[in-house]
Design brief:
It comes from Solimicrobium silvestre. By secondary structure, the protein is mainly β. Helix content is 8%, strand content 56%.
């Protein structure tokens, strides 16, 4: 069965089970108690970006795998020794280490696949 990871997210649980979830706004507007059920394990989701991210984010419990499917972006990683910028063009990936604040600047409209553990994610304005 085919699915579109922009419209259907997949949660990969610790026990190996994969659960399909409504994506987009429907997922992000879930009641907090329901969303907490998906904080452990891994969430696989895809997003389209035509403008820079409005926030920085940080995942304290695990690394995040970010894969550029198309377009061009610059991933900004706020590390102890300063800001590191990773440019991805066409396709490519970056692993964002746990606890590292990161944001994305869009060079050209892009599609990105994210694999992350959501529990404890923190946001701040860009």
């Amino acid at each position: 069965m085919s699915l579109n990871p922009q419209l259907t997210y997949v949660h990969l649980a610790e026990n190996g089970a994969a659960t399909q979830l409504p994506g987009g706004e429907e997922f992000w507007n879930m009641p907090e108690a329901e969303m907490e059920r998906y904080g452990s394990g891994w969430l696989v989701s895809e997003f389209e970006f035509s403008v820079d991210w409005p926030t920085w984010e940080m995942h304290p419990n695990a690394d995040e795998f970010v894969y550029l499917l198309s377009g061009s972006v610059e991933v900004h990683l706020e590390q102890q020794d300063g800001l590191r910028k990773v440019t991805l063009n066409g396709s490519g990936a970056v692993v964002v280490p746990r606890g590292i604040w990161h944001t994305v600047k869009v060079i050209a409209p892009s599609r990105m696949l994210h694999v992350t553990r959501g529990a404890g994610t923190q946001l701040r304005p860009a």
